[in-house]
Amino acid sequence: MTRESRRARTLAPFQNQSDQERAFLVGLDVRARRSKAAVPAQAAVARDAAKAAGSESPVLSLEMRKDGGFGSGTAAKPNGKPNIPEFDAEESLAELRTLAESAGAKVAGEILQRRDRPDPATLIGAGKLQELAGAAASVNADLLLFDHDLSPSQQRNIEKIVDRRVIDRTQLILDIFARHARTREGQLQVELAQLQYLLPRLAGRGSEMSQLGGGIGTRGPGETQLETDRRKIYRRIRHVEQQLENVRRIRAQQRQRRESAPVATVALVGYTNAGKSTLFNALTRAGVLSSPKMFATLDPTIRAVDLPSKRKVLLSDTVGFIRNLPHTLVSAFRATLEEVQRASLILHVSDAGSRLSAEQDAQVEIVLKELDAENKPRLRVMNKVDLLDEDVATGLMANSGRDDARTLYVSAVAGTGLDRLLERIDVLIKEDPVSRVRLRVPQSEGKSLAMLEARTRIYSRTYLDGAVELEADAPESIVRRVSDFVVPKSKLAVKH
Predict the structure, then answer these.
(1) What CA–CA distance (Å, rounded) separates 59 from 435?
(2) Which regions of 232-338 does DSSP assign to beta strands (E)?
């Protein structure tokens, strides 16, 4: 796609499908924003690849993907300060295209307007809006999707000119969430966000719409339909918030019961479509829905995972983040995202094969900060290494094999690097610490022996005088349960 300042592109006609709407995409590129320097998309992966290859050059150019994508760039601005990754307008429009397809729409055409600043009345300007109306009509588009949040007045002004439904980015994301919510909790959270979005968009305001009152100028027809709608929405918001508060209370009770046992929670976070659910399935064999569509996972899922030390942790799959995630969604999904806030460890999953991974990671950091979870212990997991060039992937995975590595490269689809990931989680989890103990268990204690076999790593086993002497790495909770069989260190010293 070319980068001319003004261009519109009409896509080839699609076959008529009664269950799919035809959408025309509208993007806006503000030149003032483009003047800011940005880190190229794959800089983080490229830096790691260079280190793996033994290079410390600040300027990198490297073939990354089998399909021709690449990562290159500089590590910092000339003044030494790190660059802040940003999506450019074309990348943002491409993401909107994926969102539209996830919502079940067929993209019939798209247009990108470049301006010095957004137009306060129509966002893209009256002239461009007339051009847009003709382009949308020529492809028989059912609706226009704007890659920008529209004010209520902008949305009304645009609809009057184009004579079609107009949906902004936030409303599109809300629609996708509504499609994918399966549990009652997820549906309540989406409904709350939709009501909060709808409320300021009810047309008309002013004191003339108030109810009947006393005094000159206040005698009118009574409550208008607008105020009736507002009252109904406010009432529904209060009802949904009350139900969500009940959900939070139940979740808190469940969490309290979990926390009474020394089982840590590990939360998966990351940009939408980074492969979190696929990784979740690979580690837990849970079989949750994993899909290339955005926001395939909305309802939280928690499953137990056995670590190499035989400890158990609870792994939580969460909703994916996205650029400019609507604040109403973050607020509405707080009951779900509390799992991130209370997690002992956060696995930040990134798409190693995406040229936008650096920008996507920056957006995840923004949401984590909003959740007050940016300082949580964290392990970065670069997923989808199967999409990288084989030599580059081998170098990256070798470099992430250090005992102190905070970034690991894995492929959830191929199962590559998952054993190493579990080992790193085992090291970073502090709950129920593991220690080396020596035990002398009577052979008649079959139940205790079976528990030790299942829950500890046994290094030696000796049968002597009707007892079994074991040397094992055991979690603290297990040591407490078999404390009667622990051989004190003083006796070990005398024996040796």
Answers:
(1) 46
(2) 264-270, 301-306, 312-317
Question: Using alpha carbons only, what angle is made at residue 394 by residues 391 and 398, rounded to the nearest 5 degrees?
Answer: 145
The values of phi and psi at residue 374, to 5°, are -70, -20
Query: Edge-to-edge strand order for the sheet containing 378-383?
Result: 301-306, 312-317, 264-270, 345-351, 378-383, 407-409
11 versus 227: the higher-pLDDT residue is 227
Q: Which of 68, 26, 67, 75 is nearest to 48 (CA)?
A: 75
**Alpha carbon distances (Å) from 443 to 337, 405, 446, 455, 463:** 47, 42, 6, 18, 9
- Does the domain spanning 6-172 belong to CATH 2.40.30.10? no
Q: At what angle do helices 169-180 and 184-198 cross, to 10 degrees?
A: 160
Count CB neighbours of 495 within 10 A. 8
State pTM to two decimals: 0.71
- Coil, strand or helix: which one is 389? coil
Determine whether 67 is exposed, middle or buried from the number of CB atoms within 10 Å of its CB (0-12, 13-18, 19+).
Answer: exposed
pLDDT, tens digit, for every residue of 470-485? 999 999 989 999 999 9
User: CATH assignment of 262-428, given 3.40.50.720, 3.40.640.10, 1.20.120.1200, 3.40.50.300?
Assistant: 3.40.50.300
Q: Are 105 and 175 in contact (CB under 8 A)?
A: no
Q: What is the Cα–Cα distance from 374 to 269, expressed in whole angstroms?
A: 12
How many other C-beta atoms can be found within 10 angstroms of the C-beta atom of residue 303?
17
Mapping DSSP to helix (H, G, I), strand (E, B) and coil, where does residue 455 land? helix
Task: Give the up-direction half-sphere exposure of residue 315: CA atoms within 13 A in the CB hemisphere.
Answer: 27
Task: Round to whole Å and give the CA distance between 425 and 488.
Answer: 30
Q: Does domain 434-495 have CATH number 3.30.70?
A: yes
Distance set, CA 69 to CA 2, 62, 108, 221, 387 (Å): 18, 10, 26, 64, 10
Hey, how many other C-beta atoms are within 10 angstroms of the C-beta on 71?
A: 28
Report how far residue 487's alpha carbon sits from residue 485's, in angstroms, rounded to the nearest whole number.
6
For residue 380, the 8-state DSSP code is E
* 462, burial (CB in 10 Å: exposed 0-12, middle 13-18, buried 19+): exposed
Round to whole Å and give the CA distance between 423 and 271: 24
Residues 208-231 have pLDDT tens digits of 344 444 445 444 455 567 777 888
Question: To 10 degrees, what angle do helices 418-428 and 276-284 make?
Answer: 80
